[in-house]
Amino acid sequence: MEDRSRAGVRRTYERIGAHFSKTREYAWPEVESFVDEVDACQTALDIGCGNGRHAALLADVADRVVGLDASRSLLDAATERVGSRVSLLLGDASRLPLADDCVDLAVYVATLHHLPSAADRRASLDELARVLGPEGRALVSVWSTAHDRFDAPEDAETGFDTTVDWTLPGGETVPRFYHIYAPAEFERELDDSGLETVSFEISSGNCYAVVRSEGKGP
Prior knowledge:
Blueprint: H1 6-22, H2 29-36, E1 41-47, H3 53-58, E2 62-69, H4 72-82, E3 87-90, E4 103-109, H5 118-131, E5 132-143, E6 160-167, E7 173-180, H6 183-192, E8 195-203, E9 206-213
Parallel strand pairs: 1-2, 1-4, 2-3, 4-5
Antiparallel strand pairs: 5-9, 6-7, 8-9
Helix pairs in contact: 1-4
């Protein structure tokens, strides 16, 4: 039976991490566009950094980059990719081991939807708000009911929990937990957190929100 706990999600990615990393070579265009809009900054953060493909982009514009992931296996892959350009941390997205107001730029891509409870996801968004500085911006993405692999109504107000199998070499399948967000639900969760939405779009079945920390900026 699948373990829908944070520890269970972590064990899943320890198990599939090496193979998963090999399929994640290129940065997402949406992340490239977000980072391209920044000239330079002091500190950048990649939450759920995986093999470091997006942290590498951040290292082109930031003096210091921190990449955080719950999987040692994926952090090993990130070390091979980004080396000393990024400070890599083993940690929990709902309890960021960073000081208040220390991040100028962040990406939080394809990770929030793996946190197994609504409380964890809300805590994680609030943590992002806490660490973002007054001028800080972040890009947050989740899988949504708009994805063509899900049979969900276009006007759905709430999403659902599911598993999506990962197939290892040799044919073994490993279930991965997802909370599939309805776009309206994702917007509500952002509004209810310590974040303020700057822009919102749906692209290739994913919701993308550019956010800032509510009340900190001008």
